[in-house]
Amino acid sequence: MQKGKKIIAIGERDGVPGPVIAECLESAGYDVVFQVTECFV
Amino acid sequence: MVDSLKPRRVGIEGVFYSLTHVPDLVRYGSKPWRELRRQPALEAQLAMHLRSFAAATAYAPHQVYIGNIAPEKLSEIDKPWYEKLIESATADGRFGDLVEQDQFYLQLGSADRFDLLTFEESWFRTRAANYSPGRMPRLSSSADLEARCAKGALGLYSGERLVGALEHGHDEDPNLAAEVLLENLAAKIGAAHSLRAILDRLQLDPGGIDYVISCSEEAVGDRYNRGGGNLAKAIAEEVGCENASGSDTKAFCAGPMYAMVHGASLIQAGVAQKVAVVAGGSLAKLGMKFESHLKKHMPILEDVLGSFAAVLAPAKPGQPCIRLDSAAFHPVRAGASPQALAESLAEKPLAKLGMKLTDVDRYAVELHNAEITAPSGSGDVPRTNYLTLAALAVMRGQIQRNQMEDFVRARGMLGYAPTQGHIPSAIVYLGHALDGLRSGKIRQALLIAKGSLFLGRMTQLSDGCSFLVDRNES
């Protein structure tokens, strides 16, 4: 169901960084089209 | 290793923190600047939610910042802190102060070495007694200021009154635009004020400082050296540190911690005898979360510029010190997860000293005031960081899982710093750490700062720097 589903992953500096989210989602079959880590402070 | 080259303690002579309350500059923060252009109607709303200087002074987190309230007492003060103001609050703190906007404008006048600023004459005349002796600023009529602003100068306001105009430093170069120069000058002024104050309190002659390191956020530069730097030397000049030169250390929010390590290293190496580490405020971060504050019917809490100055010198017996043998950096290979950062910046430096996570009396992490960040959904940043340390202690078998809250309570604190980036990033606690070390309330504190390198789009990496402070009992 998730195979190929397109995802934008936005991570957070004090939480889970973007590359980590992307790696998890890609291993589950998602297509991460963009990932970024932001800092909200 | 040759014994004289082994990293050791370097003395911290003192530190001073300042907050400059600039409600009428919130409109020039990066986020308000963009949003007000898109939605001009927001300006009236923003104006209605600005605080007075008295309210900013009586704001409990600001009283912690300048040393009048201990961080551990903050949890005893009812929230919302912007309503439960401290009745007895003063602008002069044990190791800091708050500065009014008018005073900031006057400082701007004396710090402007290129005659870019014009004040409205009657406004200036009524405040001239507070103007530092020296070169007089250019004075003019309000009609002239209006005309200058119509041609592109940046207006300086006191409420609705136009009291000054700052010209561009170059007709075409965006890096010398008035709004950029105002950011740079704001950093210079704040850092200079804090440095002047700490030298005064320590009764040190400015001529005795031989090196200044600026870790302000602004890069400062141009003629195509966009981040040219050495704001440090401009700050040294402003304070009268005639015998000093300096340089800038930049590493996003971790900059001040790197600057402290660099400064201490210069002293241990014998290159310098007295080093000042300074940072001015970040004007770009004013009003960063103003929209969420408006939505929650709160005052705009990001209305202050933070600054600090610390003086380092060879360690004396009994003096609070930075331990260079604990200094740790976040290496490229470490990875960006919070756990990887905690391992690199807490566990490893402690291991070098034969200490465990539970051996540290106090941790200073990202000490952003959650009252500012929570309304926009950014949560409680210090708590997240403390829980990461506690979780690491559980993983290492140093505490039980059900002791995590106790770990956070005993070794952490509530965040109290304005969202000024480099200022909340651990260095804000140094003043209270010095107090605690001198009184014996704490034996040591580990300061841990993070830097969001990925924001510059040059790398996906995070960064960080940490060191332990303790008393020189050797």
What does this structure look like?
The complex is a heterodimer of chains A (41) and B (474). Chain A has 41 residues and is of the alpha+beta class. Chain A has one domain. Helices cover 24% and strands 37% of the residues of chain A. Chain A contains one helix and two strands. In chain B, helix 5 crosses helix 8, helix 8 crosses helix 9 and helix 14 packs across helix 15. Chain B has two domains: 161 residues, Peroxisomal Thiolase, Chain A, domain 1 (3-Layer(aba) Sandwich), CATH 3.40.47; 304 residues, no CATH class. At the A-B interface, helix 1 and strand 2 of A face helix 14 of B.
Helix/strand layout:
The complex is a heterodimer of chains A (41) and B (474).
Chain A: E1 6-12, H1 18-27, E2 31-38
Parallel strand pairs in A: 1-2
Chain B: E1 9-21, H1 30-38, H2 42-48, H3 53-57, H4 60-65, E2 96-99, H5 101-111, E3 117-120, H6 121-125, E4 138-140, H7 142-150, E5 154-158, E6 161-166, H8 178-202, E7 211-214, H9 231-239, E8 245-248, H10 255-268, E9 275-279, H11 290-295, E10 304-314, E11 320-329, H12 338-352, E12 362-364, H13 370-373, H14 381-395, H15 404-411, H16 430-439, E13 444-451, E14 463-471
Parallel strand pairs in B: 1-2, 3-4, 7-8, 7-9, 12-13
Antiparallel strand pairs in B: 1-10, 1-11, 3-6, 5-6, 9-10, 11-14, 13-14
Helix pairs in contact in B: 5-8, 8-9, 12-14, 14-15
